[in-house]
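Summary of Year 1 activities. Much of the first year was spent building the evaluation harness for sequence design. The harness presents a backbone, in tokenized form, and records the residue chosen at every position. We chose the following record to illustrate the format because it has been used consistently in internal testing since the harness was completed.
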């Protein structure tokens, strides 16, 4: 009974995080029209080439996915890995979520959409990166932005990342839903309920005094 009461308090006292929040654009460097420029993500030859650009959320969000203009240029395998990454001293850091994309359009760069399965929390005013990686024999095109954003990170064969701060940034849109936080009243209700459960358990577990009744004949 007490366990059921505690579970009920947990379920009613704290709202579900992001369960009903609509998905919105957290950040977008996609122009209304198709980007005119493009960068090669993979290059023909022995080297793997990774590229990425940075974004900074204005609020806390649950990450829901990425849209970016990406196409295959007919060389190598038609596949690419797209990453959401943390920031490490102004360059891409750890991979927070990875998408493996195949069957890209050939000789064009339509917008490709990827949906998050992990929904990691991305924090306000913290930089993150969207990056893509392809095998060295593969040539892909990733459209660049026309909205004035600058900065492209790059690396070859999983070596140290570098940054071209003056290049037009890669075009992409990051989607998310607002990360809800419990209201103060809900927190107080939850705390009060749990305290009552603890006190009740202690009371039930307290040793009881046993009184013997002797009857004299």
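For this record, the design step produced the sequence shown next.
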């Amino acid at each position: 009974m007490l366990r059921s009461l505690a579970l009920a308090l947990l379920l009613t006292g704290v709202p579900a995080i992001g369960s009903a929040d609509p998905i919105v654009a957290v950040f977008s460097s996609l122009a209304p029209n198709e980007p005119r420029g493009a960068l090669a993500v993979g290059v023909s030859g022995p080297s793997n080439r990774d590229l990425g650009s940075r974004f900074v959320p204005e609020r806390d969000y649950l990450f829901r996915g990425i849209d970016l203009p990406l196409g295959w240029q007919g060389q190598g395998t038609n596949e690419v890995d797209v990453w959401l990454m943390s920031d490490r001293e102004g360059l891409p850091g750890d991979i927070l979520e990875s998408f493996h994309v195949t069957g890209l359009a050939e000789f064009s760069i339509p917008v490709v959409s990827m949906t998050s399965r992990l929904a990691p929390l991305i924090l306000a005013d913290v930089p993150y990166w969207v990056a893509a990686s392809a095998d060295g024999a593969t040539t892909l095109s990733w459209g660049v932005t026309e909205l004035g954003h600058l900065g492209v990170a790059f690396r070859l064969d999983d070596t140290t990342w570098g940054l071209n701060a003056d290049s037009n940034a890669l075009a992409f849109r990051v989607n998310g839903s607002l990360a809800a936080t419990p209201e103060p009243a809900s927190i107080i209700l939850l705390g009060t309920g749990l305290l009552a459960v603890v006190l009740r358990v202690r009371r039930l577990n307290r040793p009881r005094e046993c009184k013997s009744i002797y009857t004299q004949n």
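Residues 1-19, 185-190, 209-217 have pLDDT under 50 and may be disordered. Quantitative recovery figures across the full test set are reported in Table 2.
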